[in-house]
Amino acid sequence: MNFNHSFQKIKNHLFKKENIFYFSMIIIIFFLDRFSKLQILNQFNNNTVYINDFINFDLIWNTGIGFGLLSSNSILFYNLISIIIGLVVLILIYIFLISNKYEKFIYTLIIGGALGNFYDRLNYQAVPDFIDIHYKNYHWFTFNCADIFISLGIILILLKEIFKKNV
């Protein structure tokens, strides 16, 4: 009986008018990420593309989590990380459903980006990262558009918590 009540509650949250708007944003973020990656994959010839003194496009295949952390050649480890990421996305969707409007916006950014990278993990068995920000010989981790949305969402969560504690 408790499971049916929980399922009904989730179903009611899922089809709220405001959630349809945020789900549309998630889809837009997902397709912006897909478009950027497809442009790089279709036009990239394994050379670094110089944009300016601070940004290059340099395709690398990331088998780890964000910014190449926990990269491994082990198929078992890769699959384990992929399962964990899939579960985290499902948990984020649940949290999104029960959140207020401001938090929904934050989770929209994170979920849209996470779905973009998760799709790549399933489709390519790695995530194409290509944005290389640097200053002279000092390089940040190579990342993609999905990582930008995920990072913005996490920064907004941190800012929300910082200002919530100070009020």
What would you say this structure looks like, in words?
The protein is of the alpha+beta class and 167 residues long. It has one domain. The chain has five helices and four strands; from the N terminus they run H-H-E-E-H-H-E-E-H. It has a four-stranded antiparallel sheet. Helix 3 packs antiparallel against helix 4. It is globular and about 55 Å long.
Walk across the major sheet and give the strand order. Answer: 1-2-3-4
Order of helices and strands: HHEEHHEEH
How far is it from the N-terminal to the C-terminal residue, by CA? 41 Å
Low-confidence residue ranges: none
- Fraction of residues in H or I helices: 55-70%
Principal-axis shape equals globular
Number of strands: 4
Query: Mean pLDDT, rounded to whole units?
Result: 86
| Strand portion | 5-15%
Give the number of domains.
Answer: 1
User: How would a textbook summarize the main sheet?
Assistant: 4 strands, antiparallel
Individual helix count = 5
Rg result: 18 Å
Structural class, by secondary structure, is alpha+beta
Briefly summarize what is shown:
Helix content is 66%, strand content 13%. It has 167 residues and is an alpha+beta fold. It has a 4-stranded antiparallel sheet with strand order 1-2-3-4.
Q: What's the arrangement of secondary structure elements?
A:
Blueprint: H1 2-14, H2 17-43, E1 49-50, E2 55-62, H3 75-98, H4 101-124, E3 127-135, E4 138-139, H5 145-166
Antiparallel strand pairs: 1-2, 2-3, 3-4
Helix pairs in contact: 2-4, 3-4, 4-5
